[in-house]
From TrEMBL:
UniProt domain Trs120/TRAPPC9 N-terminal: residue ranges: 86-421
Protein name: Trafficking protein particle complex subunit 9
InterPro entries, sorted: Ig_TRAPPC9_Trs120_1st (IPR058565), Ig_TRAPPC9_Trs120_4th (IPR058568), TPR_TRAPPC9_Trs120 (IPR058564), Trs120_TRAPPC9 (IPR013935), Trs120_TRAPPC9_N (IPR058563)
Top-rank taxon: Eukaryota
Lineage: Eukaryota, Metazoa, Ecdysozoa, Arthropoda, Hexapoda
Subcellular location: Golgi apparatus
Source organism of this protein record: Orchesella dallaii
Length: 1307
């Protein structure tokens, strides 16, 4: 379509009549009626005018029924200003005619009302040749024309300059012609003209009856207004139907009437004035000037203008009927007279071509006929007759093509495309322009626009872009999407033949591009835009910048963002080009900011990771340098520093080594004029430039909070919470819930108020120069925190430079560490943890606990050289050597090195290796408590008693091998064993028949036993040979004395600290008990515990085992001693724990003391095991047995009777417990013992029982007795044994027997 490339910048074109292209037009604007809305007067605020314009612009469609009762959909386009040059092209394209004028103002007096009427009439003059009707909307007046009482306001609208008053008065006499008559003069203030150019248009002005075409200003300020002020597209509504309106209550007043008789008119006016003077008590209605011909709408206020929309609809309807009448007049024109209209059916530049032309020629007649058809198509399209308009366009195209009228043929083709677009894409209406927020970044605008383009699909339903060629529309003669493309291409080609129609061609190319964008044919749309670029237009520098800026916006809609950015950059460069006499650096900077999105740049450093350096780094660096230069030239040094900071921060990975040095030095030089501060910067156009932080110079590779040392780590007393009740034994949900509730941003440790806190960082300097950080400290929020500023000098290109950031919290609470701040290269940066790539959390919360004391610990024992401590809070250690059973003392001294007193102190010994560690260490709690509180700088001491604990029951040997040499004197029998845990050796030893004494009468009548199968009652423990080295038996015990202390404010909040003293205790063996057994004592209340002792030391040992009883044991020798012990009562002993109770009883009551030449100690029976027979002998039976035979008490000897003799037996059971025995069963068993391990219980034919051999006892109360009598008869001679036993009915394992059984000899 076009091939010239650079004509737009340097080429010239013939003089043109149109002002400049309207880049906001769409193809659907061809069917719209153009109405100009102007703000007049100074009383109405601009904000109120904007509200009124918004309400008016909502009436963008009106449904009207014509004379044949057919619905017509009329569309309206409202503009705040429209140049007269463009209005002159209304004969070529009727949608360019300004058909209506609406002025909006406010008045408070008659003079103001006259002035507003004058301004309205002067505005009508500029559009007199095309204007159909007008309305003047005035606020501050009642419906009857009287002043509204509350309408006075001191706010003056800046729209009108007071200097314009003289201008209006000067031209007042020249504005009195009728509405439809020829206008001889016009008057329009320049201030009104500049104020109304918010839509990118300008109004004409004329003086002395000559219409002057205004010259374009060469200043770039109008372009800035064009860029910053929303154009008329912003105020066009997209609603299809108007809301229902209430009936009009506004009164319209006919202010001027044409006098039929001049005398009568003058006399009537004077009479009216006299009548007004007489009615002084009534409110006076304002009187319009006699030359005011427009219809006025009065409203008190904006809130009381409910009928505004209805009145506007009435106004639009009047425009439609006038348009319809003109269409019908042209439609009814005779064919023979059509050539007479050729002078009016021409473009402005064609009028001189028809001078002296033969209009009667056949060619001109056909030309006139074709042009009339084309204009009928335009009028039909505006009148809502799409099908008729398309028919007229087709007819016009055929006729104009035959006479080679290329300009009007192009207009007919463009109108045909516009009508077809209205048929195919009725939803293709102008959408409200996105208003730029002052804090909205360019990247966000890009996302909005891209999303809007990507989701738009204005093709007919069910039609894809691939099916455009074969689509056939519903309306007859309507173009298909593919034909629309071809017709637009042909129209643009024909427009290109006329240099005077360059603006028309430009607008047609833009309209075609918009349609193709809706069809999602971006490549074809780009072709039309490229054609618009190469069209040579005679434009000023200001208009060229507007053109490039508009092309940039269109390329953005197409999706060619880089190309859009290119044109935006060209527009920016035109602002400060050498040909521009008034360079505008501020506007250049503003345009450069807008192109960043096309080059994948954003001034927000947080969005760099989003783009991930998309685009072209070298080009991006060039643009950023231009931003720095323009900001510097416009005098904003702070902004220049900000841009250079962003350049160094964002583009650092793409810079060479020399560029890094150069840009760093430039930044340092710029920061001398304006220091780089981490605060947003507001630009003149309202854009907010976010702060930029030098995160990479230097960059932090490691950011780690240093917890307090273990012995200074604060802890808090945790309240024991009840576990959640659940019917399940185990559920995995609670564990996951607790894990999810953990705050990952909270530090696992706490810091203490008033104590130094540290954060370790590893820094990297990517610059080839030494980087001096004059200040580096932490950024925190929450509690008061005193930060210490560090001065750091990082060598060039170093990547592992350690540093420490310190501070001191001044109050308790939660300290949130947000990041760190640096001051380098003249820029202060606040780097947040959330913006660091190697940080997983946006912040770190640390709990600051109230002030706590600190403790220093020392002991009187030497420190241990080697100590494997399992506690990290150990501050000192002590080493002690002991013998088993020996006790030593260790003095511990505590010194308060803190600033608050120690008010609370708890001590606890802890060892994870040996549970016996609790028996090794003892101390006095009262002694410690008496020394509290410990003031700062004071000391306290206490004594720890250390006992050499050991396993005296057998030597601690991990082998199960028994050395027969140590027990050779005791033969081992095949007694059953009682096995302990699998990890320990069996404690069942051999049974010696020689040690089993003969039971006496006392023991036989009082012993009770547990039901068992018999067996030995002697236990032994495997021991090593005396020849084994003593070093192998030495045991080492490690323990930590944990000191839990608190004081000051921290004590009140439940916080404390821990420190520990590590003890390494070495215990050597002394005495072992290798075997033990139980024997009846001299009284029923006692028994003898027989022990075999072995001296494991190298010295002679004296053993004291009872009062006034001792024995000497040679080294590596053994001896046997009997220890008298009281029986163990079974009161309050749980079932199954009888053996444990007996063992504890023995451990408590047996006291073995040993004495060596230089020390002494005590051996314990801890770890002893008992067999059921031993338990039977150790425990006191709850039942006392008493049995008589034939009235005599039984004795431990045989009782003789004859066969067949009746034997009477009485049994008494007495309860010795303090509780009742319930549900007992008493029974007797008679059997014969063959003395070979076999017993015969089947004696049914050998004896008989008279009475019950088994009886149930419901209850025996404490101290009460139960008696049972029976008789026995033996039939066969022999030796019989009778066994009496009593057991609980609920548990047969708990059995009490009468021992020994009765021996009855039957003769």
């Amino acid at each position: 379509m076009r091939s010239a490339v650079s004509v737009i910048l340097s080429g010239t074109a013939p003089e043109q009549n149109m002002s400049y292209p309207d880049y906001s037009q769409t193809p659907l604007d061809h069917q719209s009626l153009l109405v100009v809305v102007r703000h007049i007067g100074r009383q109405l605020r601009t904000k109120q005018f904007n509200r009124a314009f918004e309400r008016i612009s909502r009436i963008n469609q009106l449904k009207v029924f014509d004379s044949q009762n057919q619905a017509r959909h009329i569309w309206i386009r409202y503009l705040r200003g429209y140049p007269q040059e463009n209005n002159d092209w209304g004969d070529f394209q009727t949608h360019r005619k300004a058909l209506g004028l609406i002025t909006v103002g406010q008045c408070n007096s008659q003079d103001e009302f006259n002035e507003l009427c004058r301004i309205h009439e002067s505005l009508k003059v500029g559009y007199a040749f095309t204007l159909y009707d007008s309305r003047c909307i005035l606020f501050g007046l009642n419906q009857d024309g009287t002043l509204y009482e509350e309408s006075h306001s001191s706010d003056i609208s800046p729209c009108v300059d007071p200097a314009d008053d003289g201008f209006h008065k000067k031209n007042e006499s020249n504005s009195g012609s009728p509405r439809d008559s020829a206008v001889s003069s016009t008057a329009m203030p320049d201030s009104l003209q500049s104020c109304s150019n918010s839509g990118g248009s300008s109004a004409p002005s004329s003086i002395g009856g000559i219409i002057n075409i205004p010259k374009k200003s060469t200043s770039s300020d109008s372009l800035q207004n064009y860029l910053e002020t929303p154009n008329e597209d912003t105020f066009d509504s997209v609603s299809e139907d108007s809301s229902s309106r209430s009936e009009s209550v506004s009164a319209t007043i006919q202010y001027a009437r044409m006098e039929q008789e001049a005398g009568l008119a003058g006399g009537q006016v004077n009479a009216d004035r006299q009548s007004v003077d007489k009615q002084s008590t009534e409110p006076k209605s304002l009187v319009a000037p006699t030359n005011f011909k427009a219809r006025t709408l009065f409203y008190p206020t904006m809130e009381h203008s409910q009928t505004l929309e209805t009145d506007i609809e009435e106004f639009i309807a009047s425009l439609f009927w006038i348009l319809e009448s003109k269409r019908m007049d042209k439609l009814g024109l005779r064919k023979a007279d059509r050539h007479l209209l050729l002078n009016s059916l021409c473009a402005p530049f064609e009028k001189k071509d028809f001078v002296g032309l033969d209009l009667e020629s056949k060619n001109n007649k056909r030309r006139a006929d074709g042009r009339l058809k084309k204009q009928l198509g335009d009028l039909s399209l505006q009148a809502g007759l799409l099908s008729e308009a398309i028919s007229h366009y087709h007819s016009a195209a055929d006729i104009l093509k035959s006479v080679n009228d290329w300009l009007w043929l192009a207009g007919a083709l463009e109108g045909m495309c516009s009508a077809s677009v209205a048929c195919l894409y009725p939803q293709l209406r102008r959408s409200p322009t996105l208003q730029r927020n002052s804090s909205l970044q360019g990247s966000e605008l890009t996302k909005y626009k891209v999303a809007a383009i990507g989701t738009t699909n204005s093709l007919p339903p069910g039609l894809d872009p691939e099916q455009i060629g074969g689509y056939k529309p519903m309306i007859k003669n309507c173009l298909t999407p593919a034909e629309i493309l071809e017709k637009y291409r042909e129209a643009v080609t024909h427009y290109g033949k006329y240099r005077q129609a360059g603006i028309i061609e430009t607008e047609a190319s833009i309209k075609a591009a918009l349609v193709l964008i809706e069809q999602r044919q971006t490549l074809h749309a780009a072709d039309f835009l490229q054609n618009a670029v190469f069209i040579s237009l005679q434009l000023t520098e200001d208009e060229k910048m507007q053109r490039f800026n508009a092309l940039s916006e269109l390329y953005t809609k197409v999706g060619f963002h880089r190309k859009a950015a290119f044109f935006k950059r060209v527009a920016a460069m035109r602002c400060v080009s050498p040909h521009n006499p008034h360079p505008n650096w501020a506007l250049c900077h503003s345009l450069l900011l807008q192109l960043l999105e096309g080059y994948k740049l954003s001034l927000n450093p947080n969005e760099i990771s989003t783009y991930n350096f998309y685009g072209w780094p070298r080009l991006q660096m060039q643009v950023m340098q231009e931003l720095v230069g323009t900001a510097k030239r416009k005098g904003n040094n702070a902004l220049a520093t900000r841009h250079m900071t962003f350049l160094v921060h964002a583009m650092l990975p793409h810079m060479s080594r020399d560029e890094r040095r150069e840009f760093a030095q430039q930044l340092e030089a710029l920061s001398k004029d304006a220091e780089g501060l981490p605060v947003p910067l507001a630009i003149d156009n309202g854009l907010i430039v976010p702060p930029v932080h030098l995160q990479h110079t230097p960059s932090v590779k490691v950011f780690k909070l240093v917890p307090p040392t273990p012995h200074l780590k604060p802890e808090k007393v945790e309240d024991k919470k009840l576990e959640e009740a659940s019917p399940f034994v185990y559920t995995p949900f609670s564990a996951h819930r607790d894990r999810g509730a953990k705050d990952v941003t909270k530090a696992e440790f706490s810091w203490v108020e008033g104590e130094l806190c540290e954060v370790n960082v590893i820094l990297e300097n990517p610059l080839p120069i030494e980087l001096k950080v004059s200040s580096m400290c932490l950024i925190t929020e929450g509690v008061k925190f005193h930060v210490n500023s560090n001065v750091i000098s990082i060598p060039a290109e170093s990547n592992m430079f350690p540093a420490t950031l310190t501070g001191k919290p001044l109050e308790p609470g939660t300290l949130r560490i947000l990041g760190y701040s640096t001051y380098t290269l003249g820029v202060k940066s606040n780097i947040r943890l959330k913006n660091m790539k190697n940080m997983l959390f946006p912040h770190i919360d640390v709990e600051i606990v109230p002030a706590l004391p600190s403790l220093d610990v020392s002991t009187s024992k030497p420190k241990s050289e080697f100590f494997s401590s399992f506690s990290d809070s150990v501050v000192t250690s002590a080493s002690i050597s002991l013998l088993m059973g020996e006790t030593q003392e260790c003095t511990v001294t505590l010194t308060n090195t803190g600033k608050v007193p120690i008010e609370h102190l708890e001590m606890k010994m802890d060892s994870r290796l040996d549970k016996q560690i609790l028996d090794i260490f003892k101390w006095s709690e009262d002694n410690i408590m008496s020394q509290l509180p410990i003031q700062p700088g004071a000391s306290a001491s206490f004594t720890v008693y250390i006992y050499g604990v050991g396993d005296f029951i057998g030597q601690p040997d991990n082998s199960n091998t028994v050395d027969n040499s140590s027990v050779s004197s005791l033969p081992v029998s095949n007694a059953p064993s009682v096995d302990g845990p699998s990890s320990l050796p069996s404690r069942l030893g051999a049974i010696s028949d020689r040690l089993r004494p003969k039971r006496t009468e006392s023991s036989a009548s009082n012993r009770s036993s547990v039901k068992s199968g018999g067996g030995s009652s002697v236990l032994s423990f495997p021991v090593r040979s005396p020849k084994v080295s003593m070093a192998s038996n030495v045991k080492n015990y490690e323990a930590v004395l944990n000191l839990k202390y608190s004081g000051g404010p921290g004590f009140k909040t439940g916080h404390f600290r821990r420190c520990g003293v590590a003890f390494n205790v070495e215990v050597s063996p002394t005495l072992y008990i290798t075997k033990w057994d139980t024997l009846p004592g001299e009284s029923p209340a006692q028994f003898y515990l027989v022990l075999d002792l072995w001296n494991a030391t190298d010295h002679e040992m004296e053993v004291q085992y009872a009062k006034n009883k001792q024995i000497l044991v040679e080294k590596a020798e053994s001896c046997r001693i009997p220890v008298p012990v009281d029986r163990c009562p079974m009161t309050n002993v749980e079932k199954g724990k009888e053996e444990q109770a007996c063992c504890e009883h023995i451990v408590t009551n047996v006291d073995l003391k040993w004495v060596l030449p230089e020390c002494s100690g005590k051996a314990t029976m801890q770890g002893i095991r008992l067999t059921p027979p031993m338990v039977q002998l150790v425990t006191v039976s709850p039942i006392h047995w008493e049995i008589t035979i034939n009235g005599e008490s039984v004795k431990p000897e045989e009782i003789r009777f004859d066969a067949g003799e009746m034997i009477s037996v009485n049994v008494w059971l007495r309860n010795h417990l303090k509780e009742a025995l319930e549900d007992l069963s008493l029974s007797l068993d008679c059997f014969q013992d063959y003395q070979n391990g076999r017993c015969n219980y089947k004696l049914d034919s050998r004896f008989a029982v008279i009475g019950n051999d088994s009886v149930l006892i419901p209850e025996i109360c404490p101290g009460s007795s139960f008696q049972h009598a029976l008789s026995m008869i033996f039939f066969v001679p022999g030796l019989y044994k009778v066994d009496f036993k009593c057991n609980r009915k609920s548990s047969e394992d708990c059995v009490w027997k009468f021992n020994p059984p009765l021996d009855i000899q039957i003769n």
